[in-house]
Protein backbone atom coordinates (compact mmCIF):
# COMPACT_ATOMS: atom_id res chain seq x y z
CA UNK A 1 0.00 0.00 0.00
CA UNK A 2 2.82 2.41 0.87
CA UNK A 3 4.48 1.88 -2.49
CA UNK A 4 1.18 2.34 -4.33
CA UNK A 5 0.56 5.66 -2.58
CA UNK A 6 4.12 6.81 -3.17
CA UNK A 7 4.32 5.93 -6.85
CA UNK A 8 0.72 6.05 -8.10
CA UNK A 9 -0.83 8.48 -5.58
CA UNK A 10 -3.57 5.93 -4.97
CA UNK A 11 -4.78 4.06 -1.89
CA UNK A 12 -6.32 1.18 -3.82
CA UNK A 13 -7.34 -0.74 -0.67
CA UNK A 14 -9.47 1.93 1.00
CA UNK A 15 -9.94 4.83 -1.44
CA UNK A 16 -10.00 3.27 -4.91
CA UNK A 17 -10.20 5.74 -7.75
CA UNK A 18 -9.22 8.76 -5.63
CA UNK A 19 -5.97 10.47 -6.62
CA UNK A 20 -4.12 11.72 -3.55
CA UNK A 21 -2.58 15.16 -3.43
CA UNK A 22 1.07 15.29 -4.47
CA UNK A 23 1.91 17.07 -1.20
CA UNK A 24 1.06 13.93 0.80
CA UNK A 25 4.11 11.99 1.89
CA UNK A 26 3.94 8.40 3.04
CA UNK A 27 6.18 6.67 5.58
CA UNK A 28 6.22 3.69 7.90
CA UNK A 29 8.69 5.35 10.31
CA UNK A 30 6.99 7.26 13.13
CA UNK A 31 10.19 9.25 13.69
CA UNK A 32 9.39 11.08 10.44
CA UNK A 33 6.42 12.68 12.21
CA UNK A 34 8.47 14.34 14.95
CA UNK A 35 8.41 17.78 13.30
CA UNK A 36 4.72 17.82 12.41
CA UNK A 37 2.65 20.77 13.63
CA UNK A 38 -0.23 18.47 14.54
CA UNK A 39 -1.11 14.78 14.37
CA UNK A 40 -4.36 13.15 13.31
CA UNK A 41 -4.49 9.77 15.06
CA UNK A 42 -6.65 7.42 12.99
CA UNK A 43 -5.87 3.77 13.86
CA UNK A 44 -8.83 1.58 14.90
CA UNK A 45 -9.81 2.32 18.49
CA UNK A 46 -8.60 -1.03 19.81
CA UNK A 47 -5.12 -0.29 18.37
CA UNK A 48 -4.91 3.34 19.46
CA UNK A 49 -2.94 2.66 22.64
CA UNK A 50 -0.21 0.65 20.87
CA UNK A 51 0.07 3.27 18.12
CA UNK A 52 0.37 6.17 20.55
CA UNK A 53 2.88 4.30 22.68
CA UNK A 54 5.04 3.75 19.60
CA UNK A 55 4.82 7.43 18.68
CA UNK A 56 5.37 8.76 22.23
CA UNK A 57 9.20 9.07 21.97
CA UNK A 58 8.80 11.49 19.06
CA UNK A 59 6.02 13.69 20.46
CA UNK A 60 7.17 17.08 21.68
CA UNK A 61 5.40 18.66 24.70
CA UNK A 62 2.15 20.37 23.78
CA UNK A 63 1.86 18.70 20.38
CA UNK A 64 -1.81 18.77 19.28
CA UNK A 65 -3.02 15.20 18.68
CA UNK A 66 -6.45 15.02 17.08
CA UNK A 67 -8.16 11.72 17.84
CA UNK A 68 -10.29 10.56 14.91
CA UNK A 69 -11.05 6.98 15.97
CA UNK A 70 -14.44 6.25 17.51
CA UNK A 71 -14.71 3.62 20.18
CA UNK A 72 -14.19 2.51 23.76
CA UNK A 73 -11.11 0.48 24.63
CA UNK A 74 -11.91 -3.07 25.62
CA UNK A 75 -10.59 -4.11 29.01
CA UNK A 76 -9.87 -0.62 30.34
CA UNK A 77 -13.28 0.80 29.21
CA UNK A 78 -11.54 4.07 28.44
CA UNK A 79 -12.25 6.72 25.84
CA UNK A 80 -9.51 7.59 23.37
CA UNK A 81 -8.70 10.83 25.23
CA UNK A 82 -8.00 8.75 28.34
CA UNK A 83 -5.74 6.49 26.30
CA UNK A 84 -3.88 9.55 24.97
CA UNK A 85 -3.52 10.98 28.49
CA UNK A 86 -1.91 7.74 29.64
CA UNK A 87 0.43 7.29 26.68
CA UNK A 88 1.43 10.86 25.75
CA UNK A 89 0.40 12.99 28.76
CA UNK A 90 2.19 16.09 27.44
CA UNK A 91 0.07 16.22 24.27
CA UNK A 92 -2.78 18.65 23.67
CA UNK A 93 -5.81 16.44 23.08
CA UNK A 94 -8.51 17.16 20.51
CA UNK A 95 -11.33 15.06 19.03
CA UNK A 96 -12.60 15.15 15.45
CA UNK A 97 -16.01 13.55 15.02
CA UNK A 98 -19.09 13.96 12.88
CA UNK A 99 -20.93 12.78 9.77
CA UNK A 100 -18.14 12.26 7.26
CA UNK A 101 -17.65 9.17 5.12
CA UNK A 102 -13.96 9.08 4.15
CA UNK A 103 -14.71 8.35 0.50
CA UNK A 104 -16.98 11.39 0.24
CA UNK A 105 -14.49 13.70 1.95
CA UNK A 106 -11.71 12.41 -0.32
CA UNK A 107 -13.86 13.08 -3.39
CA UNK A 108 -14.37 16.69 -2.31
CA UNK A 109 -18.03 16.44 -1.33
CA UNK A 110 -19.26 18.90 1.34
CA UNK A 111 -19.19 17.83 4.99
CA UNK A 112 -19.26 19.40 8.46
CA UNK A 113 -17.85 17.95 11.68
CA UNK A 114 -17.16 18.76 15.33
CA UNK A 115 -13.63 19.53 16.51
CA UNK A 116 -13.48 19.42 20.31
CA UNK A 117 -10.59 20.71 22.42
CA UNK A 118 -10.53 21.95 26.01
CA UNK A 119 -8.43 24.96 24.97
CA UNK A 120 -10.80 27.27 23.09
CA UNK A 121 -8.02 29.12 21.26
CA UNK A 122 -6.43 25.84 20.19
CA UNK A 123 -9.82 24.48 19.06
CA UNK A 124 -10.31 27.53 16.85
CA UNK A 125 -6.77 27.26 15.47
CA UNK A 126 -7.11 23.56 14.68
CA UNK A 127 -10.48 24.10 13.03
CA UNK A 128 -8.91 26.77 10.88
CA UNK A 129 -6.03 24.50 9.93
CA UNK A 130 -8.33 21.66 8.85
CA UNK A 131 -11.09 23.64 7.19
CA UNK A 132 -11.38 23.99 3.45
CA UNK A 133 -13.86 24.97 0.75
CA UNK A 134 -15.95 21.83 1.32
CA UNK A 135 -14.84 20.71 4.81
CA UNK A 136 -16.21 22.71 7.73
CA UNK A 137 -15.25 21.97 11.36
CA UNK A 138 -17.31 23.53 14.14
CA UNK A 139 -15.28 23.78 17.35
CA UNK A 140 -16.37 22.81 20.85
CA UNK A 141 -14.84 22.27 24.29
CA UNK A 142 -16.60 19.02 25.28
CA UNK A 143 -14.29 16.12 24.37
CA UNK A 144 -16.30 13.56 26.35
CA UNK A 145 -19.53 14.39 24.55
CA UNK A 146 -17.82 14.31 21.15
CA UNK A 147 -16.22 10.93 21.88
CA UNK A 148 -19.32 9.32 23.37
CA UNK A 149 -21.44 10.19 20.36
CA UNK A 150 -18.89 8.66 18.02
CA UNK A 151 -18.42 5.50 20.06
CA UNK A 152 -22.06 4.58 20.66
CA UNK A 153 -23.38 5.49 17.22
CA UNK A 154 -21.29 2.67 15.75
CA UNK A 155 -23.08 0.10 17.89
CA UNK A 156 -26.46 1.68 17.12
CA UNK A 157 -25.68 1.58 13.39
CA UNK A 158 -25.39 -2.20 13.64
CA UNK A 159 -28.85 -2.23 15.22
CA UNK A 160 -30.23 -0.08 12.38
CA UNK A 161 -28.62 -2.42 9.86
CA UNK A 162 -30.40 -5.36 11.49
CA UNK A 163 -33.70 -3.48 11.16
CA UNK A 164 -33.03 -2.93 7.46
CA UNK A 165 -31.90 -6.50 6.87
CA UNK A 166 -34.99 -7.87 8.62
CA UNK A 167 -37.19 -5.49 6.60
CA UNK A 168 -38.84 -4.18 9.74
CA UNK A 169 -39.76 -0.87 8.08
CA UNK A 170 -38.91 2.82 8.25
CA UNK A 171 -40.89 3.30 11.46
CA UNK A 172 -38.66 0.82 13.31
CA UNK A 173 -35.58 2.43 11.77
CA UNK A 174 -36.63 5.86 13.02
CA UNK A 175 -37.40 4.43 16.47
CA UNK A 176 -33.92 2.89 16.79
CA UNK A 177 -32.24 6.17 15.83
CA UNK A 178 -34.37 8.21 18.24
CA UNK A 179 -34.15 5.86 21.21
CA UNK A 180 -30.49 5.24 20.40
CA UNK A 181 -29.87 8.96 20.63
CA UNK A 182 -31.44 8.90 24.11
CA UNK A 183 -28.91 6.21 25.08
CA UNK A 184 -26.03 8.38 23.83
CA UNK A 185 -27.25 11.34 25.89
CA UNK A 186 -27.52 9.22 29.04
CA UNK A 187 -24.02 7.81 28.67
CA UNK A 188 -22.40 11.12 27.71
CA UNK A 189 -23.86 12.97 30.70
CA UNK A 190 -23.00 10.10 33.07
CA UNK A 191 -19.37 10.41 31.94
CA UNK A 192 -19.37 14.18 32.43
CA UNK A 193 -20.20 15.30 28.90
CA UNK A 194 -22.92 17.71 27.79
CA UNK A 195 -26.26 16.79 26.26
CA UNK A 196 -26.02 19.77 23.89
CA UNK A 197 -22.78 18.43 22.43
CA UNK A 198 -24.36 15.17 21.28
CA UNK A 199 -27.30 17.17 19.91
CA UNK A 200 -24.85 18.42 17.28
CA UNK A 201 -22.79 16.99 14.45
CA UNK A 202 -20.76 14.57 16.59
CA UNK A 203 -23.95 13.02 18.00
CA UNK A 204 -27.17 13.42 16.02
CA UNK A 205 -25.35 14.16 12.78
CA UNK A 206 -23.04 11.17 12.94
CA UNK A 207 -25.84 8.91 14.18
CA UNK A 208 -28.15 9.79 11.29
CA UNK A 209 -25.43 9.27 8.68
CA UNK A 210 -24.07 6.00 10.04
CA UNK A 211 -27.53 4.55 10.63
CA UNK A 212 -28.85 5.47 7.18
CA UNK A 213 -26.41 4.13 4.61
CA UNK A 214 -25.00 0.66 3.85
CA UNK A 215 -21.80 2.56 3.02
CA UNK A 216 -21.32 2.54 6.78
CA UNK A 217 -19.25 -0.51 7.76
CA UNK A 218 -21.28 -0.87 10.95
CA UNK A 219 -24.66 -0.66 9.25
CA UNK A 220 -23.56 -3.10 6.54
CA UNK A 221 -22.58 -5.58 9.27
CA UNK A 222 -26.02 -5.25 10.85
CA UNK A 223 -27.66 -5.58 7.43
CA UNK A 224 -25.95 -8.93 6.92
CA UNK A 225 -27.00 -10.11 10.39
CA UNK A 226 -30.58 -9.07 9.75
CA UNK A 227 -30.54 -11.05 6.50
CA UNK A 228 -29.62 -14.19 8.41
CA UNK A 229 -25.84 -14.36 8.19
CA UNK A 230 -23.80 -15.26 11.25
CA UNK A 231 -21.35 -12.74 12.71
CA UNK A 232 -18.48 -14.79 11.29
CA UNK A 233 -20.03 -14.86 7.83
CA UNK A 234 -20.79 -11.13 7.93
CA UNK A 235 -17.19 -10.28 8.85
CA UNK A 236 -15.54 -12.73 6.48
CA UNK A 237 -13.24 -11.09 3.95
CA UNK A 238 -13.66 -7.58 5.40
CA UNK A 239 -10.48 -5.48 5.26
CA UNK A 240 -11.90 -2.46 7.06
CA UNK A 241 -12.87 -2.41 10.72
CA UNK A 242 -16.47 -2.18 11.95
CA UNK A 243 -15.74 -0.21 15.11
CA UNK A 244 -19.16 -1.02 16.56
CA UNK A 245 -18.36 -4.74 16.57
CA UNK A 246 -15.09 -4.09 18.39
CA UNK A 247 -16.57 -1.62 20.88
CA UNK A 248 -19.93 -3.27 21.64
CA UNK A 249 -18.63 -5.43 24.53
CA UNK A 250 -16.88 -2.42 26.08
CA UNK A 251 -19.96 -0.23 25.65
CA UNK A 252 -22.10 -2.84 27.40
CA UNK A 253 -19.61 -3.28 30.24
CA UNK A 254 -19.12 0.47 30.69
CA UNK A 255 -22.83 1.30 30.75
CA UNK A 256 -23.47 -1.44 33.30
CA UNK A 257 -20.66 -0.04 35.41
CA UNK A 258 -22.19 3.44 35.15
CA UNK A 259 -25.67 2.11 35.91
CA UNK A 260 -27.01 3.64 32.70
CA UNK A 261 -29.86 2.01 30.80
CA UNK A 262 -28.89 1.31 27.16
CA UNK A 263 -31.22 -1.45 25.96
CA UNK A 264 -30.48 -1.13 22.24
CA UNK A 265 -26.71 -1.23 22.77
CA UNK A 266 -27.19 -4.12 25.22
CA UNK A 267 -29.28 -6.14 22.77
CA UNK A 268 -26.86 -5.46 19.91
CA UNK A 269 -23.88 -6.57 22.01
CA UNK A 270 -25.77 -9.74 22.96
CA UNK A 271 -26.45 -10.55 19.28
CA UNK A 272 -22.79 -9.97 18.37
CA UNK A 273 -21.69 -12.21 21.24
CA UNK A 274 -24.06 -14.99 20.18
CA UNK A 275 -26.10 -14.70 23.38
CA UNK A 276 -29.33 -13.77 21.58
CA UNK A 277 -30.64 -14.36 18.10
CA UNK A 278 -31.82 -11.36 16.11
CA UNK A 279 -35.46 -12.31 16.71
CA UNK A 280 -34.89 -12.78 20.44
CA UNK A 281 -33.22 -9.36 20.64
CA UNK A 282 -36.16 -7.72 18.86
CA UNK A 283 -38.63 -9.44 21.17
CA UNK A 284 -36.65 -8.38 24.25
CA UNK A 285 -36.74 -4.74 23.18
CA UNK A 286 -40.41 -4.68 22.23
CA UNK A 287 -41.51 -6.40 25.46
CA UNK A 288 -39.75 -4.01 27.84
CA UNK A 289 -41.99 -2.34 30.47
CA UNK A 290 -43.70 0.84 29.27
CA UNK A 291 -42.17 4.06 30.59
CA UNK A 292 -42.20 7.84 30.08
CA UNK A 293 -40.33 8.83 26.92
CA UNK A 294 -37.92 11.14 28.73
CA UNK A 295 -36.64 8.40 31.04
UniProtKB/TrEMBL annotation:
Residues 142-283 form the Glycerol-3-phosphate dehydrogenase NAD-dependent C-terminal domain. Keywords: Cytoplasm, Lipid biosynthesis, Lipid metabolism, NAD, NADP, Nucleotide-binding, Oxidoreductase, Phospholipid biosynthesis, Phospholipid metabolism. It catalyses: sn-glycerol 3-phosphate + NAD(+) = dihydroxyacetone phosphate + NADH + H(+); sn-glycerol 3-phosphate + NADP(+) = dihydroxyacetone phosphate + NADPH + H(+). SUPFAM superfamilies: 6-phosphogluconate dehydrogenase C-terminal domain-like, NAD(P)-binding Rossmann-fold domains. Substrate binds at residues 70, 217-218. GO terms for molecular function: glycerol-3-phosphate dehydrogenase (NAD+) activity; glycerol-3-phosphate dehydrogenase (NADP+) activity; NAD binding. One of its GO terms (biological process) is glycerophospholipid metabolic process. Belongs to the NAD-dependent glycerol-3-phosphate dehydrogenase family. This is Glycerol-3-phosphate dehydrogenase [NAD(P)+]. It comes from Brevundimonas vancanneytii. The gene is gpsA.
Amino acid sequence: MIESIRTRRMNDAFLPGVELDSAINVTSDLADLADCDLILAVPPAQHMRATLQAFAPYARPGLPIILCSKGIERGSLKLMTDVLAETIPSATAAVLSGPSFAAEVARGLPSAVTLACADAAMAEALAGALSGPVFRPYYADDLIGAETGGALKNVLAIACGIVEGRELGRSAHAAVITRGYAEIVRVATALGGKAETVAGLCGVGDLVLTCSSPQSRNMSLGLALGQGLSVEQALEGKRSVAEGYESAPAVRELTRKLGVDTPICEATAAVLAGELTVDQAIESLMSRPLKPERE
